[in-house]
Amino acid sequence: MTLHELRDRLSEVDREILEAVARRQSIVVEVSAEKHRRGQPTRDFEREKQVLQAASAISERLDLPPGLARDLMRLLIRSSLTEQERDRVAAHGMGTGKRALVIGGAGRMGRWFVDYLDAQGFGVEVLDPAGPVAGFPYLSGLPQEDLDHDLVVIAAPLRETERILRALAERPPPGLVFDIGSVKGPLRSALAALSSAGGKVASIHPMFGPDTALLSGRHIIFVDVGDPQATEEARMLFEPTMAELVEMSFDRHDGMIAYVLGLSHALNIAFFTVLDRSGAGAAELTAISSTTFDAQISIASQLAGENPRLYFEIQSLNEAGGEVLDHLAAVASELRRVVRAGDEDGFVALMDRGRRYVDILRPADEATRA
Length: 370
Prior knowledge:
Elements: H1 3-38, H2 45-61, H3 66-92, E1 99-103, H4 108-119, E2 123-127, E3 138-139, E4 151-154, H5 158-170, E5 176-179, H6 188-196, E6 200-207, E7 219-223, H7 228-236, E8 244-248, H8 250-278, H9 282-287, H10 291-304, H11 308-316, H12 321-340, H13 344-361, H14 366-369
Parallel strand pairs: 1-2, 1-4, 2-3, 4-5, 5-6, 7-8
Antiparallel strand pairs: 6-7
């Protein structure tokens, strides 16, 4: 058989695989509807475990590589969950007959909220000086007349968010208003001003990026601004999802975010900055890269492509951030000292202590989580 004929056979098998996936997805829609009718949660960890175990058994019988079937089924499970979550969000219909305004809706996270609220049935409008979003009514700036939307989401840079909150405090809209800022301290007084003026105010922090399709395993933080009813209304927007909803205070939020975002961002900025200043060519490094280097480059390259001004805000506007950077600098100095001093025991102690901490942080096998 010729190479061309063999490739034709492969193409035919590929088509059959995709057709089988399409049939599976159509059944997923029926499963989602049945779960919703029975009031059952979207995720069923026991069922996922059974699917993966069955895949392993089948792959063994077919003499397939042991991880191939499990990896394939993980992808299908994740796709299934994404489809079911979308169906549940749409069926929830919390926004039916209501209007929402997304300020900053042309931005990446703003666009995520535009699509999410649209899926919930809201009549969504976009306010963004950067320009319109296709398919949605558009405002270039705050109108002179009072806003009468049922929901206002502020998805703007922190300093701009503060300005918008203060402008809304002069004419509080009747509906729920919440920001999605990554740091809350700089917004505290503006949020309080809007609340004191009679606004219904909440503050949330989605701990995921704009490319996130499935919220299972993702967190959404709700920061206490003294209006439990508004916070509950904001929480209800995400009830049909599988996101983990967490409540905390202003100070607790910013202190934790200094590590969760600030430290991880700083480490990756340091990583690619050191490489850039090293004089080593990127192509040369890639040619001899290791598994660890490749994994780190993957994370660092994603961060390098983000908005640097947003990342500067996360570093500079968080009062807890300076202490974290001081810790990072101190640890880097300590690592340099033990290496230069030939202090093997000191080096081992650093790794052992870190290993014990990381073992606590390490997430469960992705196969059982998504």
